[in-house]
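Contributing new records

If you add data, match the layout below exactly. Sequence lines come first and carry their own label; structure lines follow with theirs. Keep one chain per record. Anything else will be rejected by the validation script.
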Amino acid sequence: GTIYQTLDLKERAYHATTSNHRSVDIEIANMGAYGPGDTQVLDAWYPRDEQGQAYIKVPDKLGDPLIHTQNFTGRPARPEPVRGNVQGQELVQYDLTPQQYAALIKLTAALATVFPRITPDYPRDATGHLLTVKLPDEQLTAYHGVLGHFHIQTNKTDPGPALQWDKVIDGARRLLRLPRLKRPPAATN
């Protein structure tokens, strides 16, 4: 949940192609999403403890992980990998940690305060569900909310299918004392 600022907000970072001039980049430490048949990286970074619970472990072959928080064990907010579709690809990913969500919620609220044109919301389809593909150029140009890389570029899938967008946006809106956004009814089978 530690936040590091690596660039002054008045400077331009080259991180999001067509949106570099109008965006703030947030990089989240997560191993990312992989195809359902290609989970060796996830298996290496998320072993199971004696109780069968997944936790984050930097593989020994990478050396000292430089984690300075004593007795901290990072665990995904949801215990099992999350499956979802981004850019038309079926992907599997472990969730962020509760500490990362807490930090991301506060950071989102702070950025929406510092930059009032940033709306605490995410791109939605006509039914109100999260869009998981690149936005059409004119829609992207007009948009003023929170985006994932996959909303900007077709060759990106981050932040992946595990990010709980409603948790982040609702949490930020709560800190900003804004009403929760209306949600479409949950899909039933």
